[in-house]
Amino acid sequence: MANLSSLAKDTAIYGLSSIVGRFLNYLLVPLYTNCMPKESGDYGVSVNIYAYTALILVILTFGMETTFFRFANKEGEKADTVFTTTFVVIASLTAVFLGLMFGFIGPISAALNYSDHPEYLLMMSAVVALDAIQALPFSYLRYQKRPIKFAALKMLFIVFNILLNVLYMVVLGKTDVFYVFCINLWCTAAITFFFVPEFYRLKWKFDAQLMRQMLSYSWPILVLGIAGVLNQTADKIIYPLVNDTPAAQAELGEYGACVKVAMIMAMITQAFRYAYEPIVFAKTKDRDSKEYYAHAMKYFIIFTLVAFLAVMGYMDVLKYLIGPEYRDGLKVVPIVMAAEIMMGIYFNLSFWYKIIDKTIWGAVFSITGCLVLIAVNIFFIPRFGYMACAWGGFAGYAVAMLFSYLVGQKLNPIDYDLKGIMRYAVLAAVLYVAMVNLPDSWPSLVKIVINTGLIVLFLLEVFRRDLKVSSLPIVGKYFR
């Protein structure tokens, strides 16, 4: 269980930077939703363009982050050579992308309905290019088990970003979305310079044969990544295209703002991934690896269910993260959070095909889930608005998760504790129903106290069954 302890420690560090960072970024949500009137559609524009940048970033990194960990841990491979060869691939793709964007900005901006503001697309093209260049050095920090520097750089970007946004929007009164993109570009560029010393320490070598092997391994991961990011962003890309009403950008802004509340699940999954991915590939040679994967899955699900109950239990407080004009969209939060839990489970399940080098299965599962999501969005957005976006994500992740589990149990079976996991899922569902059915007429403080008690009940069950608190001195006697 030493590896589980290492996983917990690294998850805490990565999680601290991720969760604290996302929390600080949440401070931008009330800032934007109070400074940008919903009717202006400016916040909706930012939601739409950031969705495009997320998709492009996955394409430019080409699945090379996971590929780097796989090949850096292979016997006979030198980590520096793997890194530098991988970096050449990403840098080349990035250069081609920038050339296309700056060379054809006219027709591209017209196709995306931004012909009046091509500068938005140019600025965010530069941002996503720099993000792609940074992706591999951040992965190398994880490979070297240097979570402190990783977390420090992530936090530095967020602090710069928040301070400049407050300066422009609150002090200078510059509330146009143009300044949001300018600030992002400056902060991203500033962080890139901190990796210059890392590049000087490397022994640069390009291995063409290694590159071909890595590309063969990574292209299914690329497809998997594209499908995965579309599961998170397709609704925000599709919405203005299938909803041609004047209020489309305003509605998208409302949906995008409220989805931020549910993104605590994405934070947890990301923190877990940062710590889990390097360890899991190194663990493949151990005889107890499958037992390790099963334990990690169970604890991940427990943790996400606690987070779900916490968000729903304290919604009367969390709603103030959103400006009053945008709060009608909070009804999507439980649906989006449930979808994110399934996405996290799907990520954990994905290691069965990564460790046996059958990444093509990931592409199949993710494409299937993505097609379900896109179909739900296209057919139901015109009738149900952004509620179709929330349910589309739920359906897409559910399909990908179930397919991955069923096929994985045939090709590389792992003995997950399904009975214990279902027990926790049912208990969480019962407690959630109790929370949402408290009378609206009750004061918020009373509901928060009751919901806190319900969350404690869930935690007591976890302590009694799985955390072995009974072995602890003094407090242990209360759990025997």
How do you describe this structure in short?
The protein is mainly α and 480 residues long.
Coarse shape: globular
- Straight-line N-to-C gap: 23 Å
Radius of gyration from the alpha-carbon trace, in angstroms: 23 Å
User: Helix proportion of residues, in percent?
Assistant: over 70%
- Strand proportion: under 5%
Mean of pLDDT: 82
Order of helices and strands: HHHHHHHHHHHHHHHHHHHHH
How would a textbook summarize the main sheet?
A: none
Q: How many strands in all? A: 0
Q: Which ranges are low-confidence, i.e. pLDDT below 50, for 5 or more consecutive residues? A: 471-476
Can you tell me about this structure?
The model is unreliable at 471-476 (pLDDT under 50). Helix content is 79%, strand content 0%. The chain has helices spanning 2-26, 28-35, 42-61, 64-72, 79-103, 105-111, 118-143, 147-171, 177-192, 196-201, 208-242, 248-262, 264-283, 289-313, 315-318, 333-349, 351-354, 360-384, 386-411, 418-436, 444-465. It is mainly alpha-helical and 480 residues long. Helix 4 (64-72) packs antiparallel against helix 5 and helix 11 packs parallel to helix 18. It is globular. The protein is built from 21 helices and no strands.
What structural keywords apply?
480 residues; mainly alpha; 0% strand; globular
Would you spell out the secondary-structure blueprint of this structure?
Blueprint: H1 2-26, H2 28-35, H3 42-61, H4 64-72, H5 79-103, H6 105-111, H7 118-143, H8 147-171, H9 177-192, H10 196-201, H11 208-242, H12 248-262, H13 264-283, H14 289-313, H15 315-318, H16 333-349, H17 351-354, H18 360-384, H19 386-411, H20 418-436, H21 444-465
